[in-house]
Design goal:
Elements lengths: L14 H35 L7 H7 L10 H9 L3 H29 L3 H24 L1
């Protein structure tokens, strides 16, 4: 197995590779922007639902106290989203932010299959399996 020579700045890029790079770049950009939009929307809704909280520092301390955690189970988040509750929307935004790199890894697997690069399909599949296992185990242990 020989190493592929490094491409210089003037050498053309395979259009398939370029499309995959653009897809992954857009995926990451959209994930971060969607996350930001959800977090800001959730914060705005939370303060509209409780307008006095913005002006009372002691109320903000109560809201962020560790004994009053935001929704963190999928059922709690779904119920909060159904009720248009700000903290649930913020939590969804954080989930989108956390899952964006996971989706990027999954898209990379498809890209490597498309490029017929079996070694990277195997490596990236292992990375995805580890990420998914950590998510599942994290939920089970919590």
């Amino acid at each position: 197995m020989t190493a592929e020579p490094r491409r210089g700045p003037s050498e053309p890029v395979d259009p398939r590779v370029r499309r995959v790079e653009l897809l992954i770049s857009n995926l990451l950009r959209c994930g971060v922007l969607a996350s930001l939009a959800l977090i800001v929307l959730g914060m705005v809704i939370a303060f509209v639902q409780q307008p006095g909280d913005l002006l009372r520092p002691e109320r903000l301390v109560e809201l962020t106290h560790p004994e009053r955690p935001p929704p963190h189970r999928l059922g709690e988040i779904a119920a909060g989203l159904a009720g248009l509750r700000g903290p649930a929307i913020v939590t969804l935004g954080l989930l989108v932010l956390l899952l964006t790199p996971v989706v990027r890894v999954a898209v990379s697997i498809v890209a490597f299959v498309y490029q017929r690069d079996r070694a990277f399909v195997g490596i990236t599949s292992t990375v995805l399996a580890i990420l998914l296992a950590s998510i599942v185990l994290g939920q089970a242990l919590h």
